Amino acid sequence: MASVVVEFSAREPERLARWWADVLGWRLDTGSGFVVQPTGPGVPLRFVASGRVKSRKNGVHLDLRSETHDDQNRIVERLFNAGARFADIDQSSEVPWVVMADLEGNELCVLEPRKVYANTGPVAAVVVDTPDPRSDARTMAAATGMELAGERTEFASLHPVSGEGPFLEFLENDDGPEGMLRVLVE
Question: What's the order of all strands across the beta sheet hosting 123-130?
Answer without folding.
Answer: 85-86, 98-101, 107-110, 60-64, 123-130, 167-172, 155-159, 147-152
